[in-house]
Amino acid sequence: MIVNITDYGNENDKYFVEYSVKDLTSNQMEFLHNNLDEETKIENGIFMLKMYFDEMLYPFQSDVAQFRIADFISREEIEMNVFLSSFLQDM
Length: 91
Fold this sequence. Notes:
The chain is an alpha+beta fold. The protein has three helices and four strands. The protein has a four-stranded antiparallel β-sheet. A hairpin with a 2-residue loop joins strand 3 and strand 4. The longest helix is centred in the last third of the chain and has 20 residues.
């Protein structure tokens, strides 16, 4: 599984992070799409996930995050990979 952040920011006063997830089987994508509460879609064999955050929980809101944005993006991608992997164990 390869997780990448494709977009993040503030949209209509909501903070969000959008992820693309590659190298999943069609069964895994359908399982995630049907069982996650977040906004999801499957597009051209790629699972897309969009999560919304309160300002206090938004991972990129700090000054340190802006200074070291690549590190924060990498950490978020790793954390999402671990979360989705553990979620798929229930499949």
